[in-house]
Amino acid sequence: xxxxxxxxxxxxxxxxxxxxxxxxxxxxxxxxxxxxxxxxxxxxxxxxxxxxxxxxxxxxxxxxxxxxxxxxxxxxxxxxxxxxxxxxxxxxxxxxxxxxxxxxxxxxxxxxxxxxxxxxxxxxxxxxxxxxxxxxxxxxxxxxxxxxxxxxxxxxxxxxxxxxxxxxxxxxxxxxxxxxxxxxxxxxxxxxxxxxxxxxxxxxxxxxxxxxxxxxxxxxxxxxxxxxxxxxxxxxxxxxxxxxxxxxxxxxxxxxxxxxxxxxxxxxxxxxxxxxxxxxxxxxxxxxxxxxxxxxxxxxxxxxxxxxxxxxxxxxxxxxxxxxxxxxxxxxxxxxxxxxxxxxxxxxxxxxxxxxxxxxxxxxxxxxxxxxxxxxxxxxxxxxxxxxxxxxxxxxxxxxxxxxxxxxxxxxxxxxxxxxxxxxxxxxxxxxxxxxxxxxxxxxxxxxxxxxxxxxxxxxxxxxxxxxxxxxxxxxxxxxxxxxxxxxxxxxxxxxxxxxxxxxxxxxxxxxxxxxxxxxxxxxxxxxxxxxxxxxxxxxxxxxxxxxxxxxxxxxxxxxxxxxxxxxxxxxxxxxxxxxxxxxxxxxxxxxxxxxxxxxxxxxxxxxxxxxxxxxxxxxxxxxxxxxxxxxxxxxxxxxxxxxxxxxxxxxxxxxxxxxxxxxxxxxxxxxxxxxxxxxxxxxxxxxxxxxxxxxxxxxxxxxxxxxxxxxx
Length: 713
Known about the structure:
It contains 28 helices and 18 strands. The protein is of the alpha/beta class. The chain has four domains: 1-49; 51-185, Chitobiase, domain 2 (2-Layer Sandwich), CATH 3.30.379.10; 191-491, Glycosidases (TIM Barrel, Alpha-Beta Barrel); 512-705, Four Helix Bundle (Hemerythrin (Met), subunit A). Strands 10, 11, 12, 13, 14, 15, 16, 17 and 18 form a nine-stranded parallel beta sheet that branches. The radius of gyration is 29 Å and the shape is globular. Mean pLDDT is 92; it is low at 1-8 and 16-48.
C-alpha cells in the first residue's frame, strides 16, 4: 500500500481497532488492554477516525461507540409535536436497517430543547453550549454512557441533529453500532435549496417528490423549488397545464403540508418573462408574445401583467412560504419584436428593468419576496440600482471559473440587494451528469457566495433535452447540500470518499470508485475536444460528416472510455453483491448512465469505422474482393447497435417510471425506436452487399447508404 493510500485508509483502520478493542474489553471485563490505545486516541487519532458524514459538522470529538445489539429507544420527552415527528422519523430509519427499536431498550436517544430542564442538564453534562451563532438550526449531539442526546434550540435544530444521528449508525441489525461522539454544528447559509426543472420533459410523481423532500431534509436542505413554465394546473389559466403532464393544485397543497414536517419550504418558480413558449403557443396567449410563436412575454402588451398576477395569486394561495420566484432569465428575444422601438430608443437594460419593477409592483399585495435570475440585469449594472431592494437576485453560472464568481454578484451587492447563488449539477443534455464540472462549480460558487454575504444557495437541475433523470443527480445535489451547510470551501475529495457509504450504505468504496470512473469518461471526451458525454454525441450518427469527425477525434480514447464505463458497471455490481445497499433506484440510474456511455463508444468504435472501409472499396471497385466486402457486410456492428438500443430503451423506461409520470416518456422512447429502425435497415443493406456485387459488380453509392463524403475521403 502506497503512503497516500495508507493515510486514506487510516481512519477506517483506527475505527476497526477501536471497535475490536471495545468488544474485547467488554467481554473480559477490564480495561488494561485499552490503555495503550487510549493514549494514542487522546493524542488526536480519535479525530482522524471521524466517521464519514454529509455535511461535515463544524465541531467533532470522538467518544466510545455504543453497541445497538439489544436495540434502542427513541424519545422526545419535551412534548413538542415537531420533535415527536423527528423521533418517529429517526426510529423508522433505524427499523429499516434492522435495528430493534423498543421503549424497553437500555440504550436511549433523547431529542431535547435547550430551553428545557432536561436539555440544560444534558448540555451541562456535555460541557457544551448553544450560543447565538448556532441560530435556530444548530444542534449539539453527544453520547454519554449508553445514552445519546440531541439538543436544539428549535424544532429544526432538533430535526437536523436527528438526521446526523442517522448517519452515525453503522452496520445492520444486531451488529449496528452508534459511533460515539460530541458534535456542535450549525449552517453557514440560511437558505439551502435545490431547484428541479418540471417543464422540459419529466414531471415527477407525487410519491417521488415526497421521496425528494425526505432526502433533501436528511442532508439539511431547507428549500425545494419546482420550476414551472406550463406544468402547473392554474384554475384561471387551465389550457397550458396538460392533465397527466402537470402538477395539480391538490398535489401541490399535499406536498406543501408534507414538506413542512421536514422543515422544507417550497418556493414555486413560475417563469414570468422568458421561457414561455409552451404557454404562448396557445392561441389565447399568442398576442402576448414578443415575436410570433416565441418564448418571451411582451412587456407592453396589456394582458402580460394580468396573466402574471393570476398565476402568482394562485401560487401564493397554495405555497405559504415567504418567497416566490419569477424567473426572468435568458430573455434573448426582448427587443426583437414588439419592444424593438423602445429598446432602440432606451436600450435593453431599462426596458428589462422596468418590466421587473412592474411585476414587483403588480405582485406587491401578495406580500412575498420575489426571487429572479440575475443573468440579464447584471449585464447593465448601471440600471440595477433601480430594482426594488426587497427583490432577491439569484446569480447563476455553471462552469468552475477559476477566477471566481464576483462579477455575477457584485452588481447586486453594490446596489444593496440580497443575493443567492445558483450552481448546477451539470446534468442537462448529458448521458450522465458531468460531476467534474458540477463539483467544482458548486464548491467555488458557494464558497464565493458565503464570502460575499449571499444568504442562500439554490442548486439547479435542468432537463434541457427532456432526457434528464433526477435519480442520476443525487451526487451533485448532496454535495450542494454539504457546501451550503459547511462554512468556507468544501472538500471535494472528502465528499467523494463519503458519498457511497453515507447515501448507499456501501462500506466497500466501490460506489465512490464507480462515480469517479464516470467522471473519467467525461474527462476523456473533453480532452478530445468533443465537449463531454452529451446526449447529442450519444445520438450522433457516425456515418454523417459530423459523426465521422467525432469518431476520428475520439478514436484514440474509445477503448479507455469503454474500459471506464464498464469498470463502473462492474463496481456497482460488486457493491450490490456485498449486500444491504440503500437507494437501489439511484444505483439503477447510475448503471443506466454507465451503459449509455459504453454504448456511445461502442457505436463509434464499430459502426464508426464502416464509412472509411466502404468508401475505400467504393472508390476502388476493381480492387474489391470478397474478403474486404465481407468484412463490411458481416461485421455485425449494425446488429449490435439495434440490440443495444433496444436494451437501453427498456432500462431507460424502467428508471423513468420510478420517478416520473408517463407523460413525455414516449418522446424519448421514439428516439430509440427511430435509431433502431435506421440501424436495422442498414444491417439489411450491409448484408446484401456481397450478393449485389456478385450479381451486378456494382455497389450502392455511399450517400444511398447514409455515408457522407467528407474532405478527408
